């Protein structure tokens, strides 16, 4: 939940434009990943060569339309037995690829600019949306320590992000997320419901016919 001081200052400390506050504790840093674009895309190719994207199965038996992989000390996985963080890729039995320096750098700098200094993620979940893929409303609560924020980086085709409240039926706000946008979710927004609407058809000049989202987490 953050501490009393940061909760208090959340609403007061000004942000440099073009940065926006989406909710208490949630900051949208438009274009903040653009200076890292080349390095991040090269690192992604390296990671997905070692740990390819795959469509995981939910505990309820549904195959996800979003394809996923991970890098870092731990990776988020789902199968018929449940959701968890695992140090190894269940497809290969090997540890996930290491978190590249440029990922750590982008995540830590973004968190810091959003008011969460000292964030050092140990997990990065990498989501790939092809046209038609979507992620239904959910909370991220498999991480051990909710005082860490989550940093999310959008690459490729634009998507509509849905952001609700602490209860599934709370009203949702919609935000367009575009190539290079970074969002940081901490404090009172850390456990809010969120999701991504069905990706529209299109081709991005640098990324192709897909959207990639990186989410940096303190999982362990
Ligand atoms: C708000 N990913 O991987 S990123 C996920 O675009 C996930 O692929 C979406 O939700 C995507 O779990 C959304 C934005 C995001 C990530 C985590 C959050 C927003 C969040 C955690 C709490 C509140
Ligand atoms: Fe999520």
UniProtKB/TrEMBL annotation:
EC number(s) recorded for this UniProt protein: 1.14.11.33
Single GO MF descriptor: methyltransferase activity
Annotated GO CC locations: cytoplasm
Cofactor note: Binds 1 Fe(2+) ion per subunit.
Residue ranges of every copy of the Fe2OG dioxygenase domain listed in the record: 120-220
Keywords of the record: Dioxygenase, DNA damage, DNA repair, Iron, Metal-binding, Methyltransferase, Oxidoreductase, Transferase
GO BP terms in the entry: DNA repair; methylation; oxidative RNA demethylation
NCBIfam families tied to this protein: PRK15401.1
Family: Belongs to the alkB family.
Protein role: Dioxygenase that repairs alkylated DNA and RNA containing 3-methylcytosine or 1-methyladenine by oxidative demethylation. Has highest activity towards 3-methylcytosine. Has lower activity towards alkylated DNA containing ethenoadenine, and no detectable activity towards 1-methylguanine or 3-methylthymine. Accepts double-stranded and single-stranded substrates. Requires molecular oxygen, alpha-ketoglutarate and iron. Provides extensive resistance to alkylating agents such as MMS and DMS (SN2 agents), but not to MMNG and MNU (SN1 agents).
Protein name stated in the entry: Alpha-ketoglutarate-dependent dioxygenase AlkB
Organism: Rhizobium miluonense
Organism classification: Bacteria, Pseudomonadati, Pseudomonadota, Alphaproteobacteria, Hyphomicrobiales
């Amino acid at each position: 939940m953050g501490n009393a001081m940061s909760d208090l200052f959340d609403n007061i400390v000004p942000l440099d434009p073009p940065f926006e506050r989406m909710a208490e504790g949630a900051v949208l840093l438009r274009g903040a990943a653009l200076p890292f674009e080349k390095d991040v895309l090269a690192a992604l190719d390296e990671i997905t060569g070692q740990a390819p994207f795959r469509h995981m199965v939910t505990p309820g038996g549904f195959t996800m339309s979003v394809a996923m992989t991970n890098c870092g000390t731990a990776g988020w996985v789902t199968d018929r037995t449940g959701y968890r963080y695992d140090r190894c890729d269940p497809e290969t039995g090997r540890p996930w690829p290491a978190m590249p320096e440029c990922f750590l750098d982008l995540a830590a700098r973004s968190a810091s600019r959003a008011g969460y200094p000292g964030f050092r993620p140990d997990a990065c979940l990498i989501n790939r949306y092809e046209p038609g893929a979507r992620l239904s409303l959910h909370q991220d609560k498999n991480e051990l320590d909710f005082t860490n924020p989550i940093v999310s980086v959008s690459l490729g085709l634009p998507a509509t992000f849905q952001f609700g409240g602490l209860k599934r039926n709370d009203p949702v706000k919609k935000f367009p997320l575009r190539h290079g946008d970074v969002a940081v979710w901490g404090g009172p927004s850390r456990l809010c419901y969120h999701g991504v609407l069905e990706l529209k058809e299109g081709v991005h000049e640098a990324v192709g016919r897909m959207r990639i989202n990186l989410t940096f987490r303190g999982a362990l």
